[in-house]
Structures are given as structure tokens and as C-alpha cells.
Amino acid sequence: MTLLRIREAQLAALDAAAFDRFVDSVAPLIREQAGPAAAAMDDGELCAAIGAAMRRAQSYGIAADCDLVAFATLALTISPRFDEHPRFQRLLASPSVEPRHKIGRLFAAATAADWDEAAGL
User: With 116 labelled, which of 6, 10, 96, 107 sits at a CA distance of 20 to 30 A?
Assistant: First the structure.
């Protein structure tokens, strides 16, 4: 019996392709939800912005599809760097908050003033 071996580089390529397909599949939803900033982008620009936002989310350990979509929508609606707001940064970078709870806690903790400040980033 011959065993199939998949190298790390092959796995990385498969992961990248799956990520790109996911971004492509959620782009219409995010375009609809994110308003004027997303509407002004062509498909390539939008997918690039979504991918960049989702990679930022993943850097905080966020992995659930719905949380990645929420993070990307915030990045396109508020600011691509909204997560650099001090309150958001503390929460997102906190090892004591499970990644699956970070987006929910972000929405629960944020004030209108926080969102306004984050929009300026």
C-alpha cells in the first residue's frame, strides 16, 4: 500500500485556495452590508480588502466564518484599522478571551464614542 504524502507547501496552497474561495463567496454579502466604501470598490479591490481584514482577524485567533465576516465588515464600514482602537486592541489581543468570543465581546463593550474614534484610524 502506498501512502499519500501531502507536503506543508501543498497544504499551504490548498489553505490559500480555500481562503480565496471563502473571500469570493462572502464578498457580495459584505458589499451589501458595508455601504459606500465597499460599493466604490471593484470586485478585485473588495476581495483584497476583505482578505486583508480577515488575515488581521486571524492574527487575533479569530477563526469562525461568521466572526471573520463580521470583522471584515467592520473593517470596511468603520476603518481598515478599527482594531487598533485601544479598547478594541486590548480585547482582541487578550489571551484571556477565547477567540470565539472576541467579536461578541467587542460589540458588547464598544460605545458610540469608541466607534467614532475607531473611524478616525
Answer: 96
